[in-house]
Amino acid sequence: MRLLIMSIKVGGMLNGKYTLLVLMICLGISSFILVYSRNPAGNWNPEEKALEAVRNSPTFKWDGIEDTLKVVESFKLDENTWIVVISFTCRHSGYGDRTGKIVLQVLTEHRAEVKVVNGCVVELILDKVWDELNQKPL
User: Fold this and answer.
1) Is 69 helix (H, G, I), strand (E, B) or coil?
2) Rounded to the nearest 5°, which phi and psi values hold at 41?
3) Can you tell me the distance from the alpha carbon of 84 to that of 91, in angstroms, rounded to the nearest whole number?
4) Cα gap 7→21, rounded to integer Å
5) Diameter of the chain by CA atoms?
6) What is the pTM of this model?
7) How many angstroms separate the CA atoms of 22 and 121, rounded?
């Protein structure tokens, strides 16, 4: 702010273009600081990352019921690693995209264990039997 006041005083002595340039630079720097102070690098929520991964997973996208999606528990393994447990219900049995497959029309409860490392989902296991990221049984 002090720089801005000083540039206005100096700008009045020199010309309007210099003042405008200094003002634009100050405004740009202030905007940059404001954006990064509200969302600093490395500031991620493991539960949000895990919920997003489950919402976008083939099993949930195929017939998951949004209102049933909830975080059951989450715990920190180390400084950058979290396990988030999420439960949800699907309208049919099975895992993954079941298009063209024979499935039972029955409400099916699922429990997802999501491992988040440095803000990235590295593992998503359903019911301790299905690798959702690689779409295969364990």
Assistant:
1) coil
2) -60, 140
3) 23
4) 10
5) 81
6) 0.69
7) 44
